[in-house]
Amino acid sequence: MRVEITCENRVGILHEIMQIFAEFRINVASGELGGDSGDKVYLSAPVMLATQYQAIEKSLGRVPGVRRVRRIALIPSERRHFELDILLRHVASPVLSVEREGRVVAANLAAARAFGVSLDRVPGLQLQRFLPLLQVAELLRDFSVPRYGVPVVVRGRAYRLEWSPITLADSPALAGEGGAVESLAGAVLTLEPQEAADALSEPPPIAALWDFDLRRESCLQLQEMAALQTPLLIRGERGSGKSTFAAAVHYLSPFAAGGDCFRLQCAAGSNALKLPHSWPARGTLVIEDLEQHVADDQVRLARALQVTPPGLRVVATVAQRGEIAPALLQRFSNLVLNLPSLRIMRPSLGRFAAALLRAEFGARDAPELDAGTLAQIQGHDWPDNFTGLRDYLLVAAQRCRRRAGAMIECGDLPELSAQALPPWLGWSRGLDYRQIMAKVERALMEELLAECRSTREMAKRLGISHTAVANKLRKYGLST
């Protein structure tokens, strides 16, 4: 039996109500507070008899502040549950809820049929079992996860996966909105059957972005820019993740819900760029490596992009110092996303290395790095950024496996060149050693002075005394 009690909102009234049920030795299985005006108490007592209810109703009527007591068929949470269950049963597309680690919490009948199991067996299963090529746990933990149009295959049938976050009520909605990643409790996934894709379309690979160190700010900007319509230019060094971020723009953009991703691959040589006769009506157009086009092709591309439909989002990538024609540069002048190089994120190199190894070998089989190995990796500049680091770690991991080890040691690492790559020779012509080092030290102190809050923090960053920092600032005429 279920009871609705309308009462005043005063301190102690719920205790008095529950005390009456205790006096009649009636077990209350569940309860809920709410109502349209916040003045309702809903209680479920499955073993309560009709005669007991009549006596309890009279006792409740004598409690100060209780206005009305009546029997109801369902308490509101039960009604919402049954209504939602009935609605989901009639939804033809698979719908399921998963935890952050990829475990299925609930699913509808269509999802059970798509997975080929009975409905009662779906809760508790790992989504990775049905989507082995999708790194579900890694993506749900990641800062910028794909939301729209993710292509997946379940038991030989193609679907488009849509992702909606489930966030904690007492935490900010998403890390992209200023909150912590821990505010993400899970996700609701919808699988829409995929129609035959356009022959020109090419779904980009799904990859985690790893929001560590300075890369977090890039992820924040990405989430802000992904839902917009203005063309986006992504700048970065070779191997810094330009293509990965371009793919993330597609999967974070609402345009991916009803459209495909189209790619224009740049190639050197005149008239190498082949433009389509007409642009697709909806989706994402990714143009790789703009700087590799000759000037005439860049002008042709700039003219062609002037007539793109409103539902097509244009994203382009370019090298950090790549040359772009003025007409094309103007087209991408509003939104620019700059990616940091790996060598300026040395404190987080261990986290990046662990993430790369997990992506290659899985969370269980990925080897770890010992302290000496990490120190050697942090001392290198990594001119190819993540591409170079990944290949380097793969060689080390293979050597580690050959000796049946569980941790990568210094002996597993290939030789690294100690040569640094900054363009020192160019700007240092005409200067002697002391002048060169003075200019480098002054530039370093200026950057630290702008970034750190005090000279003590600067000393901690550099690993020298506070007095030494103060002397250097005085030497170069820099003031805090």
Number of strands: 16
**Uncertain segments of ≥5 residues (pLDDT<50)?**
170-183
How many H/I helical runs? 16
What's the mean pLDDT score? 81
Largest beta-sheet characterization = 5 strands, antiparallel
Using the CA coordinates, give the radius of gyration: 30 Å
Give the overall shape, derived from the CA principal axes: extended
Q: How would you name the oligomeric state of the polypeptide chains in this document?
A: single chain
Strand order of the largest sheet: 6-5-9-8-7
Taking the alpha carbons of the first and last residues, their distance comes to 72 Å
The helix fraction, in percent, is 25-40%
Strand content: 15-25%
Indicate the structural class: alpha/beta
